[in-house]
Design a protein that fits this description.
The protein is α/β, with parallel strands linked by helices. It has 3 domains: 242 residues, Glutamine Phosphoribosylpyrophosphate, subunit 1, domain 1 (4-Layer Sandwich), CATH 3.60.20.10; 195 residues, Glucose-6-phosphate isomerase like protein, domain 1 (Rossmann fold); 139 residues, Rossmann fold, CATH 3.40.50. It contains 19 helices and 24 strands. The strands form 4 sheets. The protein has an 8-stranded antiparallel sheet, covered by helices on one side. It has a 6-stranded antiparallel sheet with strand order 5-6-7-8-12-13. A 5-stranded parallel sheet has the order 16-15-17-18-19, sandwiched between helices. Bound molecules: 5-amino-5-deoxy-1-O-phosphono-D-mannitol (M6R).
Amino acid sequence: MKGDFAMCGIVGYIGEENATPFLLDGLSRLEYRGYDSAGIAVYDGQKIVVEKTAGRLEALKQKLEHNPPAGHAGVGHTRWATHGRPSDRNSHPHSSCDGKFIVVHNGIIENYLELKEALLSEGYTFTSETDTEVVAQLMQKHYTGDLLGTVRKVLAIIEGSYSLVFMSAYQPDRLICTKKDNPLVIGLGERANYIASDIPAIIAKTRRTYILSDGETAIVTKDSVRIENSKGEPIDKKEFVVTWNAQAAEKGGYEHFMIKEIYDQPKAVRDTLSGRIGKDGHSVVFEELSWTAREMEKIRKIFIVACGTAYHAGMVGKHYIEQLTRVPVETDIASEFRYRAPIVGSDCLLIVVSQSGETSDTLAALKEAKRLGAQTLAITNVVDSSIAREAGKALYTYAGPEIAVASTKAYTTQIMVLLLLAVYMAQLSGSTQERRLKEIVAEIKCMPERIHKLLEDVDPIKVFAQQYAASEDVFFIGRLLDYAVALEGSLKLKEISYIHAEAYAAGELKHGTLALIVAGTPVIALATQEEVYEKTLSNIKEVKARDALVIGIAMENDANIEKYVDHAVYIPHTDKYLAPVLAVIPLQLLAYYAALSRGCNVDMPRNLAKSVTVE
Ligand code: M6R
């Protein structure tokens, strides 16, 4: 089991006051980064006292109510478990066997298993299932009296992504912190300095900060901060003075969680891919599954069952699995599944998709499929959620907590896991040529960068959103994978802007809905799928002939689309299978900016809840 990955919140304090109040307050401001367990470690003048517990921060506060640790240096952590389940012993901080070294970590140590085995053989004992504990043990193993030197030695051994804070009973006058691919900020105070994953934790104390860059290490004492580059050379870091208010800081400076989460997508996808591409660079590995070709052969039919956005991801997944494995896949809306007497047996695999892992219709469908003897697999974002526990196996998306009701980063990471799964199954069954699978994996690896590029220029979408904000009805059309994305685009627009929207398979319009298209009706047409591209253009012509106002979503090398539509929005060029991951983003943004223009409560739309735990 791995450690704490997609998000998690870290804090550190060193100064003249008691560390505990800041640590607890800082963690409470980082709970949006994770909230399934929390802990602190404080040097009390003689030893480091560690207190941690599963559950929300409130549980830790209650535990500490009568006897909080006190001291002038400490670290804290709020966790969003991904691999190791939320439990007291998996909570951070983690300690070395001798209790002299303490570590809090956000990220993943990819080579922790081999390191752990070596440490076990040398007599080190482990109390948790996390990767992070390996770092604490390595500190003990390599310590020779020089704390910073030991940190450097350990950093040279571990592989992966991290932000880390180290504390040691040998040198309690300092905290050492470093980062790679995860955020870390240092707050500069008066006879005190602060460390945190994110600005909200420190904003009540100071607005003067250093934002650490990858590879930099900081040695933080109560009245100094020394920053070194990866070669150990001191650097003259420029201070960043925070001008946001506390509320905006929680959202990373964004106005709403939804837009923050849209911009989280490159990282969410990167985290979801981490550890799932083999060392050869082109095969998919799922430690969690380890299926064999024989087991794969036994699966005659697959059901993908989910609700809302997760259902739309499932529709994309159906396409992937059928195309790459030729095993038939049915998608079902979870609230329908168990009432339609589904034909399910032991040769079936039921995949449920759920961000929260708590949606009651999805959970009920899962239980029904188990009762009927199917194998079950959950794709979810929440470790140890009811759905993860109920399913035979679970694959996690590493999107981190999604706070906005409208799902964005959960959807794109669900699609990534479904595509990885389809490739994994095809590898086992030999149903698709290896060359084609390699092509897909190569493109999968480029996705974080492609999403990042797409998000760099969204101004045209803002303009369209303002133009369309006054519309009463909007239509989304597309074929094949574009149709699945159209459904998701339409749901996004409805749920947060309250504009009525319909999604249609583009070829279906002329069977009735075309009657609704009149002059000025907004139509969003997706045209990313090469095999139906010409057909989609014909459908665009049908609506243009009725004077619809058409936005086309196409790949950047498409020199044709502008002749057919009123406005074109381009996504970076990619494989047709990956196009949904990119094409949905302009639609998320369109919904967001339309909702803003209409003055809607973007993060908490009317009548809706983030997690639907009633039938
Ligand atoms: O937590 P789940 O993924 O199971 O939730 C399913 C739906 O309720 C959810 O996707 C919903 O449709 C989204 N809020 C839409 O943005």
